[in-house]
């Protein structure tokens, strides 16, 4: 597997475009379109929130029922959530307009929205945006980058990753982009991910690979513990790499999963590190757990702890809060067996041995915790399973971003 | 039932004392003692954290195995958590010293600690403090108030409540104090509650009443979602009211439970409103739920949502975040049936009807949300069960308090 510079246009046959449709922001692009020159198999995973945005309900149906998909239309600014039948109708209108402009079937179009909830989409603006984008689709690196920028809300950086691998003598590419940081005014964190590949792979295995991988990637990050109404990851495969179609769990499938995992992990980490107000990416590795499931619960418990996140902001080696968060995770363990190490680009330091603090240097610990990416490694010493979760620090700016009155 | 001005010395036969033992703070009291002139039945509830502080382990044993209890010794400054066998030994030493000074059995003494975890107690200072307090025990209102002050850490107000009720022609009193706000340096939130009563009641019913009541009171508050290693509620009953002993679930038991519930609810609300950095008490009532269990899960989900808490700090009627938090609670419901009302001393305003915003005034909503205590009432319109949870807003000061480096 090889990491390359690229985004959603890196795989063969994928084009992208973006435009400033004026949905809510001024002086910036706020719509993106991804298009494949040939029909794709589509897989998707969606929010588990009982309150589901209209595009989530719409895409679930398309991914399940459509034979193939060829385009995705995304807008930032308005989430089209809690908008009732009117909001669902706008998903249909968006798909219909894109289908007409691109000369494809209406059920070959997926839609996604992020932004304010409770507001209705200005559908004429979206339709005008679709007209513009359909004419400007391009397979360039720049087109992919502009699309990744157009879907940002409170994100401070655009998020793209691409990799290639070999399958049956052919080069297969997987490229993705996502957005996610928190909400824009007034609302909740929305995480959207779009991963494109030119791999030839059966629809069943495509969905299976995605469903399995999100559990180890997107589902292991947390900015604020608030699960959005709009969370969506879409994975489109158009087969243009011309590798022998992956229809069973062979070596090519394993390589595809590895590439998908890399792309998903990297963009998930970018989201965590770019969490609202964050100054640091906070990685928590739990090793020596009894099972992977327990390791995941333990690592997520630490990464979601407000007290631990505030300590990371303060560059404070506050091991008690980490031990506490492990303790209330719901997983049984012997506290007197736990070891804890902090790690970053500045070095590594052991803090706890057998549940009790060792004689470490607070200054050295603070130096290590002052990097933009820090890792806590907790060894439960009760098995061989491990898992990693990613989050960010809790800062004044998180409160500021989310307390400011809607204007 | 009648609310009276009082704390732990309000019930007959209970005395209190406090002192500045110099455990960690300067120029303030940091130890408290509660003593009953006659033996008490004791009940207790303790943290569910796998990592349990030494006094939690110690008290569990005493509450379960001792025939009677007569004193409680509490210190602030050091939590005696993650301190191994040495820390557990200090619980024994504390009890032994108090027993000698008070001339009671060693297993008639309960201990509690709150503060920094990972540090060992300066046992000589505690022993000196016990000597002083044993001589200064008093049944005055002021002694109870000073004891409530001595157990504070980052608390900004002391927390006491007392009520009386009639049983069998006798006046029974229930009086309590607690501490809880967040942590002191470097560590986690510790919630300690001490409720005294002169009721005559069997040990079994005393524990049953307490265990049932904490589920609706202390367990329904959240400041930051971090369950401490030290959480403890102790309930002592010395029978000096001379009411006919409550040995079955009769009308007197019902009245006792009502009084206990009032005391626990009020001090729990004080803790939530005095959460670290908080500027407002945030109450969430869920009504019209299918079951009480579901109503509790729904209300706690909202009260724990960082996004909602930040919005409350901003006086922002951000209904989308509340609907979102209800949605990810794990309870199934129809979002299109939900109604939402905000309420405070400044008035009441309906925000959502059938899952969609009504045409309300943002200015009026902000006015209502600018009070020091605000309530959100969510009607799920799917049953008759209800529950209330209490929390606070998320503020810059919460981050400041918890990010500041340990000094």
Automatic annotation (TrEMBL), chains A, B:
UniProt EC number: 2.3.1.35, 2.3.1.1
Annotated catalytic residues: 190 (nucleophile)
Gene Ontology terms, MF aspect: L-glutamate N-acetyltransferase activity, acting on acetyl-L-ornithine as donor
Biochemical pathway: Amino-acid biosynthesis; L-arginine biosynthesis; L-ornithine and N-acetyl-L-glutamate from L-glutamate and N(2)-acetyl-L-ornithine (cyclic): step 1/1; Amino-acid biosynthesis; L-arginine biosynthesis; N(2)-acetyl-L-ornithine from L-glutamate: step 1/4
SUPFAM superfamilies: DmpA/ArgJ-like
Catalysed transformations (reactions): L-glutamate + acetyl-CoA = N-acetyl-L-glutamate + CoA + H(+); N(2)-acetyl-L-ornithine + L-glutamate = N-acetyl-L-glutamate + L-ornithine
Site (Involved in the stabilization of negative charge on the oxyanion by the formation of the oxyanion hole): 114-115
UniProt keywords, alphabetically: Acyltransferase, Amino-acid biosynthesis, Arginine biosynthesis, Autocatalytic cleavage, Cytoplasm, Multifunctional enzyme, Transferase
Residues noted as binding substrate in the record, renumbered to the chain: 153, 179, 190, 276, 402, 407
Subcellular compartments: Cytoplasm
Record-linked InterPro entries: Arg_biosynth_ArgJ, ArgJ-like_dom_sf, ArgJ_beta_C
One Pfam family hit: ArgJ
Enzyme class, broadest EC rank: transferase
Keyword field contains Coiled coil: no
Gene3D superfamilies: arginine biosynthesis bifunctional protein suprefamily, ArgJ beta chain, C-terminal domain, L-amino peptidase D-ALA esterase/amidase
Main location: cytoplasm
Function description: Catalyzes two activities which are involved in the cyclic version of arginine biosynthesis: the synthesis of N-acetylglutamate from glutamate and acetyl-CoA as the acetyl donor, and of ornithine by transacetylation between N(2)-acetylornithine and glutamate.
Assembly mode: Heterotetramer of two alpha and two beta chains.
NCBIfam families given in the database record: ArgJ (TIGR00120), PRK05388.1 (NF003802)
Stated family: Belongs to the ArgJ family.
The name this protein goes by in its record: Arginine biosynthesis bifunctional protein ArgJ
Species: Maccoyibacter intestinihominis
Gene coding for it: argJ
